[in-house]
Amino acid sequence: MTVLRRRTLRALAVAMATAPLLLAAACSHASDSTSSSTTDTGKAAATLPKTLVFSPLSLAPPALKGLSEGVKGMASAQGWEVIVQDPNFDATKQIQQLNEVISSGRAGAAWILAVAPKSMGDLIKTAQSKGVPLLVNGQPAEYGFSGPQPGITFDYIDYTAGGKALGEQLGKCMTEKSGGTGKALYVASQEGTAGKAEFDKAAADAFKAAAPGATLVQTIVAVDRAKAQTDIGNALQGNPDLSAVFSANDEGALGALGAFNAAGKKLNCVTDFGGNDEVLKDVKDGKIYASVALQFSDDTAQSFNTLVKMQADPKANGEVLVVPQKTFTAGS
User: What is the architecture of the domain spanning 159-294?
Assistant: First the structure.
């Protein structure tokens, strides 16, 4: 998996543990189906079981295993049965498993982290024909659609918004601490990371707009914290007056702190996209200026509530949800 996907799934697993408290009112939506039992929608809603099928990428990574346990706890608290599947990163196996449970009539709704979104077309048609609502990760275009679809809700991360917030925060920090001048380093995620192109562009554009007098001197790629620290240390040798870093992931931000400490240099400004517990503690302590953090607990609440509502009216268009983001600073 990519760096960003691994980090995202770790955060999801943590968030899911507290999700039941956020979803106490979720099942109140289950009674919103039409009062006419003669309509197609009414018949579908009446016959759908309160059974949620959860199909992650795999159960092998501990984060995904933890996420599945969180889903079971959350849905069970609302009176739902949960079927957890394990495609083990195999797109064909994932579709076969989902087809079996949806076609058999056992599924009342499905929550899918798709291994290969573009391969899901026939499965989506099957679910729509059965009136079984789906919630899938990503945007409609990733599945070959141009917008919302009957019985399908899409849930995605707005990488453009995240990159923009990251760049703006670094520019703000450099304006406050060095009059908007100085040299900055960008730590990017690996090639193939979801949303990389739009995130990188938005971050660079926002930084330039927020601190036009500052200079972006180099970009490196963070594979993990140790390598990021080594690479940033090397960048410091070539740019000894480097004073600011903005990172597309937690590994890069934490690696930057380590590199500057090891070199005995002051890092005036560092901003981060991710917001794991260690990063947020460093924000609180003033070591990191800002972290743009994905709010997976809030996303879990909106996702489950949406599935419940969709089950009451499975022929209606689903929604296009966005994972909420929040910027943390020392004063927030």
Answer: 3-Layer(aba) Sandwich (3.40)
